[in-house]
Amino acid sequence: MRIGILGGTFNPIHNGHLKIAEAVLERLNLDKILFIPANLPPHKSEKGIIDVQHRVEMVRLAIASNPRLELSTIEVERKGVSYTIDTLRELEGIYGKDAGLFFITGIDAFLDIKTWKEADTLISDYNFVVIPRTSFNYTDLKKVLALNLSERELSALDKGAADFLELPMSGKGRLYLLNIPAVDISSKNIRNRIKSGEKLKYLLPESVELYIIKNKLYGC
């Protein structure tokens, strides 16, 4: 199987997450994508992160209509801080080491990968799918990784002249750089809009918006 992994706090999940999942599913011909809500994210303050059971339920509602999107609660069940390396190893135990696992992350987060737990093992041995983020460039990857790519090749992704690059890493892992439309929706912006009473049309699945209202989340 070819399985995408989309982790995060999902505080709350929004249409940007769903658009990313659809784009990666099609571009890499994946069988499914696992949405994995973090129990305690290692690189974010706990302040403002609502109870994990609410975040899990919102993910469940958001992906209910698509059979190729699946909720996984392994990080919640593992408890403690949710480290990517622990999740990938646990998924290998579930699906087998021959399963193709593709960890999806924005370039903004990937540029900090050297700060992640067991970063060298992650970079060497696991597949990463890196997607665009507004105000970040693929050429910045040369600052953190020794890539066998020229500045020109990376710049072609930034300019839209190329839409896909696949690179072998030092171990069995591969790096997939995708030029898909950057999604300018953030959970933080949605939380702020809820607090100020602004409309959320086109930002959230309706089921998630109704859940937030029903449970009076984020100060609504």
Summarize this structure briefly.
This protein is α/β, with parallel strands linked by helices and 220 residues long.
Structure commentary:
The protein is an alpha/beta fold. Helix content is 37%, strand content 17%. It has helices at 15-28, 52-63, 74-78, 84-95, 107-110, 119-125, 151-159, 187-195, 206-215, and strands at 2-8, 32-37, 69-71, 100-106, 127-131, 164-168, 174-178. It has a 7-stranded mixed β-sheet with strand order 3-2-1-4-5-7-6, with helices on both faces. The longest helix is centred in the N-terminal third of the chain and has 14 residues, at 15-28. It is globular.
Write the layout of secondary structure elements.
Elements: E1 2-8, H1 15-28, E2 32-37, H2 52-63, E3 69-71, H3 74-78, H4 84-95, E4 100-106, H5 107-110, H6 119-125, E5 127-131, H7 151-159, E6 164-168, E7 174-178, H8 187-195, H9 206-215
Parallel strand pairs: 1-2, 1-4, 2-3, 4-5, 5-7
Antiparallel strand pairs: 6-7
Helix pairs in contact: 2-9
